[in-house]
Fold:
Amino acid sequence: MKTTTSAQSHLIAAMALVAAFTATSCAQQGGGHGLPAEAREQIHALFDNHAKIHRELKLTATGYTATTESDDPKVAAALQKHVKQMQERLGSGLSVRRWDPAFAEYCDHYAEMDHRFTPTAKGVRMTVTGRNAAAIKIAQNHAKVVSAFAAQGWTEHDKKHDTVPR
Structure:
């Protein structure tokens, strides 16, 4: 079937509208994107063993650097695996904790940040640099929430966290 230029233009416009209405940020995704069992096991192990985790957070002018480690080799390995899993997940457009406003915001701005993950002998070092002022503040907010997770464990897990004031 041969189409006219006008018909082709309408078809392209219709396809663009469908894409615009069906595209979602990772924070807006519906169900069906929960963590795989292996990722859940890693994060649960970290919450269970939060007292064995030591985290040093340094906020910088462009984001933060956090070193998160444990003297327990199993916890150190779980930290490394967890960070790698989350980088892969968020980098592919999926999210975590959509019900938590701070995580939804972090996910929405994830592509505006550079994430450098470095394994250490006892865990991980994460350096995050925001590419704009909003991304810097959001990255720092996320780092503070993760620090609270390491300090408080399951008690902090169950809380919703605030977004960055605008």
In short: Strands lie at 53-60, 63-70, 113-120, 123-130.
